[in-house]
From TrEMBL:
Species whose genome carries this gene: Leucobacter aridicollis
E.C. code: 2.7.7.60
Name of the protein described by the UniProt record: 2-C-methyl-D-erythritol 4-phosphate cytidylyltransferase
Keyword ATP-binding: no
NCBIfam families attached to this UniProt entry: ispD
Swiss-Prot/TrEMBL site (Positions MEP for the nucleophilic attack) positions: R175, K235
Length: 257
């Protein structure tokens, strides 16, 4: 496992140095959205979330391998979406693999499906369909510079309160050291793979599920750094987020005209 202390540059043959692995996790059920279908296959501006992410990732000039992790029964549909996607000219291979019951299992299956050459791996939620390509590039550059785990983060802007089960406010929480984190989260491949191997895919107590890969790496002793996140990387979780993302997309399209 690449430890946090190693700090060796990630090098290899010239062709291999720049190509990355991206795991797009899209195998969730989308229960909080309640759209009647898995969230990653919901449409935003006429395209599924999977298609939005596919277009962004395959526009990245590094090239590499994108593995899309989906519910098993939607693997065929996903392959059709990939086949129908406009070519980007970048050097990307795309594959599709079935996910697991929990997010961390889906990530592990995705990492296992990547080719050997992918020495840097980005894990991205399909639920963040408008994430700009610049954020993928920012995270990748910081992983290569530091050989640590790197996650995008935004400052928390609301006043925060700790509330009891009785709805009574107990205290105001100092927000200064708190951030809200996003994806893509980037890792030296060996660090991520070893941390997921250590966690395993067996049944875990629901309260003990890591909600992101940075947590998986931290549990294995790795260092996690932050880079500035992007408001466009907003996550689709509830129906209210869909309206917000539609508005962001419309503003983006308006800007492009
Ligand atoms: N077993 C799972 C669970 C989640 N995900 C993916 O992880 C990302 C973040 O998860 P979340 O927003 O929690 O999505 P869902 O699990 O689909 O949502 P919910 O918890 O509301 O069911 C999503 O892109 C989702 O598709 C996954 O690939 N496999
Ligand atoms: C990974 C993640 O997107 C980071 O913000 C997020 O933690 C996953 O979704 P959840 O809503 O926390 O399950």
């Amino acid at each position: 496992m690449t430890s946090a202390q190693d700090h060796q540059p990630l090098t290899g043959e010239p062709h291999e140095v720049s190509r990355i692995g991206v795991v797009l996790v899209a195998a969730g059920r989308g229960e909080r959205l309640g759209a009647g279908k898995p969230k990653a296959f919901v449409e935003l501006g006429g395209r599924t979330l999977v298609e939005h992410c596919l277009r962004t990732v395959t526009s990245l000039p590094s090239g590499g391998h994108l593995v899309i992790v989906v519910p098993e029964h939607l693997a065929g549909e996903t392959l059709r979406l990939v086949a129908a996607a406009e070519p980007t000219g970048a050097n990307w291979e795309v594959s599709v693999t079935p996910g697991g019951r929990e997010r961390h299992e889906s990530v592990k299956f995705g990492v296992d499906a990547l080719p050997e050459y992918a020495d840097v791996v980005l894990v991205h939620d399909a639920a963040r369909p408008l994430t700009p390509a610049a954020l993928f590039a920012r995270v990748t550059a910081e992983v290569r510079r530091t050989t640590d785990a790197v996650i995008p983060a935004l400052p928390v802007v609301d006043t925060l309160k700790r509330v009891g089960a009785d709805s009574i406010v107990h205290e105001t929480v100092d927000r200064a050291p708190l951030v809200a984190v996003q994806t893509p989260q980037g890792f030296p491949r060996e660090l991520l793979a070893a941390a997921h191997d250590r966690l395993g895919t067996g049944a875990h107590d629901a309260a003990d599920h890591p909600t992101d890969d940075a947590e998986v790496v931290q549990r294995a002793g790795g260092t996690v750094r932050t880079v500035p996140g992007e408001s466009l990387a907003h996550k689709l979780t509830t129906p209210g987020d869909l309206a917000l993302l539609e508005a962001l997309l419309a503003a983006q399209n308006g800007d492009a005209r």
